[in-house]
Amino acid sequence: MQRFVGYCALIGVVIGYPSAKTSVNSNDYPLPYILIEKAPGVYVKEDLTAPLKNIAVEDDDIKVYIYTQKNIDDEIEIEIANASVVNTPFDARKPTCFVVHGWNNDHSSRLNYLLKTAILESNDINVFIVDWSKYADRNYLTAHAAVPGVAKIIAKLAKMLEEAKHLTLDRTSIIGHSLGAHVAGLVGAALDGQLDHIIGLDPAWPLFPIDDKDSRLDFGDAKYVQIIHTCAGRLGFPVSIGHSDYYPNGGLAQEGCGVTDITGSCSHGRSYLYLGESLKGSRFTATKCSNYAAFKSGECKNEPKSWMGGFDIDKRAVGDYFLDTNGSPPYAKN
Question: Which segment of the chain is annotated as a signal peptide (predicted)?
Answer without folding.
Answer: none
